[in-house]
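Q: Could you write out the predicted structure for this multi-component system? I'm mainly interested in how the pieces pack against one another.
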Amino acid sequence: MRVPNVNGDIMKEFIIKNLSLRYSDDNESLRNISLEIESKAITVLFGPAGGGKSTFLRVLNRLNDLADVKEMKGEVIFQGQNILDPKTDVIELRRKIGMVFSRPVPLPLSIYDNVAYGLVMAGEKNKQKLDHAVEQALRQSFLWDEVNDRLKDSAYSLSGGQQQRVCLARVLALEPEVVMLDEPTSALDPIATSNIEEMLGELKQQYTIIIAPHNVQQAVRVADYAAFFLMGELIEFGPGKEIFHTPRDKRTSDYITGRYG
Amino acid sequence: MTTTSKHRKEKINEQLGFIGLRIITLLTVIPILGLVAYIIVKGAPAISWEFLTAPPSNGMREGGILPAIVGTIYLTIGTAIFSVPLGVMAGIYLSEYAKESTLTRLIRIAIINLAGIPSVVYGLFGLGLFVVFLKFGTSILSASLTLSIMTLPTIISTTEEALRSVPNSFRVVSTSLGASKWQTVRRIVLPQALPGIITGVILGLERAAGETAPILFTGATFFLPILPQSPLDATMALPYHIFVISTQIPGMPVSIQYGTVLVLLIFVLGMNLIATLIRSHARAKRQW
């Protein structure tokens, strides 16, 4: 748990009010989600597949604009603005809210160009600044020592775990406020997985982390706060310890103890 | 005992089936190879430096075919100038920007149908629009424009297909890193699709280079001893020249006919070869 800041209140990164969403194919949806996500902490979204975790994450950086959304209601307040407002500068928003996906998807570029991609797209041309940012980001994702002598190689020459860290590094290079991870270890082996988990603990000093882990055990390991999603509804939300040890809702405890999933 | 004999019978049937399919496949290849071999054997003796660099003489019964070669090159370049930018841009629009709607569905249906129209119809259309109405006359310009319209559907659909074959995850990732739509297309999608687009362009132009009907009324001329000087000049062209020397000239030496066909074949198959090389090179380099 986090100590309240100097003002005595806990900083909120996101305030989500009555968020509902429906896709055109009525596949996955969100129903009336209200939730406050704390700054500089790890918030875990867990629950069975198809519960709306990915959809929820993709609302927060408006990546759902690419999908076939039929209807979206409610508010998502980020830095005092409702980001669902059509006037939101989504490109600026996505630079502040980075995302790591469930499978490592390096862009078909070199390691260096992958990490520098966001900055270059933002118009950064200064080679020194780019070099510095790339090194910084690769150090933060514990990859620098492994790749610093082959930055010009294709990112596809790396192992799966390394690729996923490149994907994290290219998010960090933009110095975002929030890092979202959607089942980031689902394609990785246990060692690569524990590397990523360890990294999360470091990263939360600087970033707000929202993660949809790929199983309950991982959720328990990393959570400061936990939100249980089931069939598009937020069943329960609170500090990780409470949710995992003394869940109030029977559906939550049944899921945690593995009665369904 | 019964099961094993049944198995054996199935196995034999399968073998026979394979052999049958293999023979049929070979049968489709043999005529093509035979045709090419025959043309090479009959046409190769006619090919000489003079044949490639001199205009026809003595009522086309002697000399070379230079004006026809140059004409076909001009027409191919002219077609490329109009159809490539237009077709590639339309393909990008359809694949990356257009939302699925009745309009885009209509556009796609139009493109598919455009590809199925007989080439002589394009020729007549070109005659009406470019030669007569727009007063470009029987010229390289009119013929290139006509060939462009004929080529567009191929270029548009192969471009669209090449772009669609780029995994959508690249677009999602690029967008999530704060790239605009156009940045994503230009930096990621287009470079990955480029070999496919170039292949499609070449295949489209190759077809245009070998067509007779669309240029028949719009730009090709029976005989022209000098090379065309401007886009508004008419020109000789290989496909039409072959038609002329095969049917219109009594006492035409057979070797010149085959030689001309061989030159056109080399031109077209050469383009095909380039397209194939680009495609296989890109496939070997692709990482995803």
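A: Regarding packing and overall arrangement: Confidence is low (pLDDT under 50) at residues 1-8 of chain A.
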